[in-house]
Amino acid sequence: MFSKGDWVLWGFVGVALVLAYLVRVNQQLSGTPEEVRRLSGSRWTPELLRKTYERLQQHPIDYTHKLPPKLDRRYIVTGGSGLVGGYIVLQLIARGTPPTHIRILDIRRTERSDMQSGPALDVDFAQTDITSRASVDAAFARPWPKSAADLPLSVFHTAAVILTSDRSAHSYAFPESVNVKGTANLLAAAKAAGVSVFSATSSASISIRSVGTWVAPWAREPRDFFQVLDTRDFKLPLRERSGYFGNYPASKAVAERLVCDADQEGFRTGTIRPANGVYGNPTDNTVGDPLSRAVMPTWVSHIVQSFVHGANVAIAHLHHEAALLQPSASSHSGRPFVYYHVIPSRTLSLPPVLMLLLSHMVEFYMDLPFLPFPFSVLGKLLPPLQGDVRHLKPGLFSICTHLIASNSEVSKPLAEGGLGYEGVMTTLEGMVLEVLEWNREHDHLGEGERKTMRKAYTTSVSLAETIRKLGTVGPQVAA
User: Fold this and answer.
1) Cα→Cα distances 45→50, 63, 259, Å
2) Which of 388, 378, 301 is nearest to 346 (CA)?
3) Residue 15 and residue 8: Cα distance in Å, rounded?
4) Distance (Å, whole) CA 201 – CA 395
5) 171-202 pLDDT, tens digit each
6) Which domains are present in the chain?
7) Three-state SS for 302?
8) Where does residue 2 rank: exposed (0-12), middle (13-18), buried (19+ CB within 10 A)?
9) Using CA atoms in the order 26, 29, 30, 33, what is the torsion angle rounded to 10 degrees?
10) Of the candidates 78, 140, 275, 415, which lies 20 to 30 Å from 245 by C-alpha distance?
């Protein structure tokens, strides 16, 4: 029999072993594999950032000459008020498409300052709920000006809800309704309207595998800590929802198959998979959201990823459209293309293992109402979580791991099965340009005021939360 002292001793040993294990997990999650370091490029020094900022301030980037030639067509851009869709609208106008030949389908008007003046003001706007077939049909049926009514029609589908940390089956109905059902509604309406090109924005997150965060103490690094973003998964059967790191990539994978499977002669379809974080306007999550905060908590300052500027995503869509209109379009249609173009308010560094533990607690708390009795009763009595903490869930550790993509396939010439894609700005230029734009939007504030009176933007995450609260999506559970 163990004495009381023995139990106390074994208790101390158990606690020490658990703490030692957590320290080891924290070490593993804090590492950067050597092969990733070699791919990450040179560091951005304060001097380099300053010189780039001054150069862009004096000589703004003009990439109009890199846009594919103007096509005599009319356009519908779903999500045209947002990041990628907004850049598509601006690029269509820049290459010569009359703004009256463009229609935005979105649930709200844009907050982008670069779309609130000039020709962009003349673009038609149809407030649309893509989860409703009637709403989509009404938006497609709106009359076009006489100069555009008889032109062939292209659709750029960029609308989606992005909540990357959710992975519970109980919360899948919402992204499914927008990303899957919404895409199906748009495809049906496009076919009925005689659309000949349907180019959709997918996501490279579809290919991400869940990171094995809780690993053996002797493991060199967590499982799938470093991943290459590609399209090999597209050649395989769709996984079950639980086979993805979260509900967002699961829903985008289903939507991507819907788009690509719809490809046929006279109705060419395909998708573009931008690599991980898309940035490029103060309304984005990647750069704009941190700029709007006085303090930015982070546990991923060591993580290396391939990000992409919204302007690069947009021009890839224009190249995609041109490829789908080629006589040999069958070699470019019905398939996805993945590509990228490689962030630091004051940051507050936090231990990864602490955030991992908290993420599991947050997920459990939010799932309480769906668990068996008595947890379900407790979940209905406790107040719901508010603010950013509700997004801290284990799925973040898969999308916030080392992720590298390549432009090799999409940059190939059309004759070799690529799109002839060429980016219009580097990551350094794109991120500095966004900081420059953010500063211009806060020029009316003094130095001290900028720290306390930062403009609040509606990011894709906050917009998704608003849509979810206002939506009518039922509580059904997906397998």
Assistant:
1) 9, 26, 43
2) 301
3) 11
4) 22
5) 999 999 999 999 999 999 999 999 999 999 99
6) 34-470 (3.40.50.720)
7) coil
8) exposed
9) 140
10) 78
Here the tokens at position 85 are 């869709």
Give residue for tokens 């000459």: 65
Report yes or no: 257 and 287 within 8 Å, Cβ to Cβ: no
> Which position has the token pair 């951005």?
44
Strand, coil or helix: what is 173? helix
For residue 460, how many other CB atoms are within 10 A of its CB?
A: 20
Those residues with Cβ within 8 angstroms of residue 373's Cβ, 6 or more apart along the chain or in another chain: none
Tally of CB atoms within 10 A around 350: 14
* CA–CA gap between residue 226 and residue 48 (Å, rounded): 28
Residue type, 93: I
**CA gap 363, 359 in Å, rounded:** 6
Q: What is the pLDDT of residues 70-94, one digit of tens each?
A: 999 999 999 999 999 999 999 999 9
Q: Name the DSSP class of 461.
A: H
CA 357 from chain center: how many Å?
A: 25
Q: What is the pTM of this model?
A: 0.92
Would you call 19 helix, strand, or coil by DSSP? helix
Three-state secondary structure call for residue 395: coil
Q: In the chain, count H helices and then E strands.
A: 16, 13
